[in-house]
């Protein structure tokens, strides 16, 4: 008999809850429903194409990535990304007088949640507004230090999650210690 996993909703909350201050100064809670498979795939494609564009090094690579973006299927015409990813919460925020920068920040967080999951959503949420750059560790030493301090860092990082690239996968370099150990054996 095979493995039987049941009760998905017992273990996973398929919603995202955001608390945002509205124009009247009152903090309100908005629940973002679980995205449809179609929306999830669309968001993943957008993130992947964005990664291709930002990692392109030649005009031909940029053109190919932009062509991919232009060939993406439309979900609904006339909707912004914020309206697509937030659904009815977008309309509720507008009605409550939530400011544009706050709505856009919420939309970025929801996009990160759809594409990369809870940890990415938390990082996007904590990045704050402003320049659009998330405080996040840059190099390995800074990432390790940030892990020890709960993720707090002063180094800027890209606010939009980048898609992983498999086109330039390399084996990790061996340290000089492992080379010395190998040659001593």
UniProtKB/TrEMBL annotation:
Residues 140-150 have a biased composition (Basic and acidic residues). Signal peptide: none annotated. Residues 8-154 form the DUF7426 domain. Residues 172-185 have a biased composition (Basic residues). Pfam families: DUF7426. Transmembrane segments: none annotated. Residues 127-185 are annotated as: Disordered. Coiled coil: none annotated. This is DUF7426 domain-containing protein. It comes from Polymorphospora rubra.
